[in-house]
Amino acid sequence: DKKNDRLRDFLGGFLPACVLIGIIAGLIVLEPDFGGAFLIILIGFSLFFVAGVNIKHIIGISLFSLPAIISFLLVDYRRDRLISFLDPWSYQETSGYQLIQSLIAVGSGGIFGKGLGNSTQKLYFLPEIHTDFIYAGIAEELGFIGSVFILMLFVILFIFCVDSTLKQKDNFRFLLTFGCTLVIVLPALFHILAVLGLVPTKGLTLTFVSYGGSSLIMNMFIIGVILRGLKENRCV
């Protein structure tokens, strides 16, 4: 495939693509939204890997970008967020407050939860529970059973998207569908991990669940692209 061969060429394909990703990620960081920029970079490099880019090129550009990434992480609230992630109870009234309240919500839900609409953490104890921490609210109200049910729905969605990706007939559609899959699944994965305290809080929403009309429209559009590709392949 000529496009793949061009992408494997460092100066002619890989480097220009990295510069484009860097510009987009840089603009997102200026918002500021480091979590969104991190996702853009992660999705981009995942596509590079799947497309067969020389692994040495990926490692090289990653090491070259590492100082800039570290400098962004060490700025003010991002640094505090990383430190509080390691020991939130030492910062329970400042940068660790949100994570602690999230863990309280998850733990207080028990097996079956407090009942739909009966969350106490949403009463101003857990900020942004309708967006960045909606999974904590689900765990509190629906308990372990309900939160695992939501998790299983995302697993099923991921399996469906991967199945659609593997059925694509040409390389472009394969990479497009794979990229769409990552856009849908990765934010949900990091959202759940952040709520459970397994990764630093990034301010990422839970796909199709968190509040936000524009986000819902774009995610539905992406699912439409995946379904369209699957339908075309079945018609071939």
- Cα distance, first to last residue? 21 Å
Approximate shape: flat
Number of helices: 9
Helix share bin: over 70%
The run of helices and strands is HHHHHHHHH
Topology overview:
Elements: H1 2-8, H2 10-29, H3 34-50, H4 55-73, H5 76-86, H6 97-108, H7 134-166, H8 171-195, H9 213-235
Helix pairs in contact: 1-2, 2-3, 3-8, 6-7, 7-8, 8-9
Please provide a written account of the structure:
The chain has 236 residues and is mainly α. Helices cover 71% and strands 0% of the residues. The protein has nine helices and no strands. The chain has helices at residues 2-8, 10-29, 34-50, 55-73, 76-86, 97-108, 134-166, 171-195, 213-235. Helix 2 runs antiparallel to helix 3. It starts with a helix and ends with a helix. The relative contact order is 0.10. The mean pLDDT is 86.
Descriptors:
mainly alpha, 236 residues, 9 helices, 0% strand
Describe this structure in a few short sentences.
The chain is mostly helical. Helix content is 71%, strand content 0%. Helix 3 runs antiparallel to helix 8 (171-195), helix 6 (97-108) crosses helix 7 (134-166) and helix 7 (134-166) packs antiparallel against helix 8 (171-195).
